[in-house]
Amino acid sequence: MFELLLKNIQLITILILAYLGSLGINTLLGVYYNLNTLKEGFSKEKLIAGLVRGGIVLVGGLAITVIISLLPEILTNFGISTSNELFENLSIVAMAGVLASTIARYLGDALKKFYAILDSHTEIHPIETKEPEE
Predict the structure, then answer these.
(1) Which of 23, 33, 51, 99 could join 15 in a cystine, given CB atoms 3.0 to 4.6 angstroms apart?
(2) Do the beta carbons of residue 106 and residue 19 sit within 8 Å?
(3) What is the pLDDT along the chain (134 residues), one digit of tens a residue?
(4) What is the rounded distance in angstroms from the CA atom of residue 77 to the CA atom of residue 83?
(5) Which pTM does this prediction carry?
(6) Helix 84-121 to helix 3-32 angle, to the nearest 10 degrees?
């Protein structure tokens, strides 16, 4: 029953690491953007809320992974015959899709902040020239 679950968790580990990386990058860029570009004060509450939201999304994604992995056994226990190969392929696609969509969302937000930071420091200011005094 748990063989498919363990196999799926092993295969999905790299996506979890990518998710944590995208969450970290998004958080870091968000803090920098708020402090240096928007000139806001540091907000511990906003930081904690963002990290909690990221943790909840990760736990939700892992819960979906567990449910999808155990679904074939659950159905078999209720007398519904299923093809393990079908569910194995489906579960990998579904889990990868859940985590990939969250990675894409956090990376998209991080890129927006990254470009906003770059734009705020690369403004070209015209050089003022004075007419020579006679």
Answers:
(1) 99
(2) yes
(3) 567 667 777 777 888 899 999 999 999 999 998 888 778 888 899 889 989 998 998 888 788 877 877 777 788 888 887 776 666 667 677 778 888 888 999 999 999 999 988 887 655 444 454 555 65
(4) 14
(5) 0.69
(6) 10
